[in-house]
Write a structure and sequence with these properties.
Strand order of the largest sheet: 2-3-10-5-7-6
Largest sheet: 6 strands, mixed, barrel
Oligomer: single chain
Order of helices and strands: HHEHEEHEEHEEEEEHEHEHHHHH
Distance between the termini: 24 Å
Number of helices: 12
Structural class: alpha+beta
Number of strands: 12
Length: 400
């Protein structure tokens, strides 16, 4: 019996036992779908975070209060909360020759209301340079005025979605809104930009930095953004920022972070998470393999006369073993292909539901899932195949 004959015989046997074969295929396909889909989610999250940082450019430096030993920490996380003042930001603006913009940022949550309509949103305090530093643009109206940072003015920019909710069907520019216990005039509407590194641009307000600090009764900034003219200037500006602030504070109670360090740290974490998800999902493939083994052990017991007939017709032990191994490989291989099809449909549906989230599976995950499914079928098919080869031909023909 040639290998091709063994393959044909195995395919005929699987087609004859359709229910049993279908259940095995279902188990394998679910396992492969789980592996590919979960790795797609992990890889998509990594690409999304990387893309968010890339959208800000590669020449932005974050200065946050509090000292952190971890260079790749998230901005604003780690270390004790120490003051980072407007005077510090002004000192950096004067001292940093490589800096195109120095942007102080204050942050808090407040209720923005127009008559009976109101929304609890993030209200940032900054300068007119904030929009350019974060690559944002106005949909209508005008930017925050050019003014001294220490001065407070009762004006605000609204995110696009916030403007639509508070002023449905109206142009809010020039209107007044209540922000907490203050009344501010709407200068402009920021164009919708979705999520930008955790910041929902559509649902936010932007006021002068002194106005925000007074509103929240704060003396410390949330962070200072430093935008250099070129990415090559980033390393040089890090030392200058450190020298200026260390001289002013007398200690290193601040942290200077680059976009590359944050993006790299998050990329490493999400990459490890992707591998962990793939490992967890692979457990379902192992379970499916055990199912194949159990089903085929039952199949060997039920097909004892068939095995005896093969042996009586001259088929050797290796050929009988090959028939059952081919059955296991066919189940695993076809189930793997079905799983890839299901995972493709799932990722397409996810892409349609979340167009900004690229859930394309990595090539290694597709190849690994299919390869592991076939390997699982082969490994768990060995025991039933060996059991078939140990049957005595005479007794097998008698169904014993």
């Amino acid at each position: 019996m040639r290998a091709l004959d063994q393959l044909r015989f195995a395919a005929w046997a699987l087609a004859f036992h359709r229910l049993r074969t279908g259940l095995c295929l279902l188990g394998i396909s679910i396992g492969v779908t789980a592996v590919v889909l979960l790795t797609s989610l992990g890889e998509g999250a990594r690409r999304y975070v990387h893309g968010q940082f890339q959208s800000l450019g590669s020449n932005l430096v974050f200065v946050v209060p509090g000292h952190s030993e971890t260079a790749g920490a998230m901005p604003g996380v780690g270390g004790a909360p120490n003051d980072l003042s407007l005077d510090d930001a002004l000192a950096l603006q004067r001292a940093l020759r490589q800096a195109e913009r120095v942007v102080p940022v204050s942050m808090g949550s407040e209720t923005v209301a127009n008559r009976e309509r109101h929304k609890q949103v993030l209200v940032l305090g900054s300068t007119r340079d904030f929009l350019d530093a974060r690559h944002l643009r106005l949909r209508s109206g005008e930017n925050l005025p050019e003014m001294e940072w220490e001065r407070s003015r009762s004006v605000i920019l609204l995110g696009g979605e916030l403007a639509r909710e508070l002023f449905p069907g109206q142009n809010p520019v020039g209107a007044k809104v209540r922000v907490g216990d203050r009344r501010l005039r709407v200068l402009g509407v920021i164009d919708d930009h979705g999520q930008q590194v955790g910041l929902d641009i559509g649902l936010m307000g932007l006021v002068p930095v002194a106005t925000a600090m007074s509103m929240y009764d704060e003396t410390s900034l949330f962070r200072i953004l430093v935008q250099v003219r070129a990415h090559a200037d980033v390393d040089g500006v890090l030392d200058d920022i450190h020298d200026v602030l260390y001289e002013r504070h007398g200690e290193e109670d601040f942290t200077v972070i680059t976009q590359d360090s944050v993006s790299g740290a998050l990329g490493s974490i999400l990459g490890a998470l992707t591998l962990a998800l793939a490992g967890i999902a692979s457990v379902s493939l192992a379970v499916a393999g055990i199912g194949i083994m159990n089903v085929m052990l039952v199949s060997v017991s039920e097909r004892t006369p068939e095995v005896g007939l093969l042996r009586a017709l001259g088929a050797g032990r290796a050929q009988v073993r090959g028939v059952f191994l081919w059955e296991a490989i066919l189940i695993a291989g076809v189930g793997g292909l079905l799983g890839l099809g299901l995972s493709w449909l799932s990722t397409q549906a996810l892409g349609w539901y979340l167009p900004a989230f690229d859930a394309t599976p990595p090539a290694w995950a597709v190849a690994a899932a299919l390869g592991v499914s076939v390997a699982v079928g082969l490994v768990f098919g060995v025991l039933p195949a060996n059991k078939a080869t140990r049957l005595d031909p005479v007794l097998a023909l008698r169904g014993k």
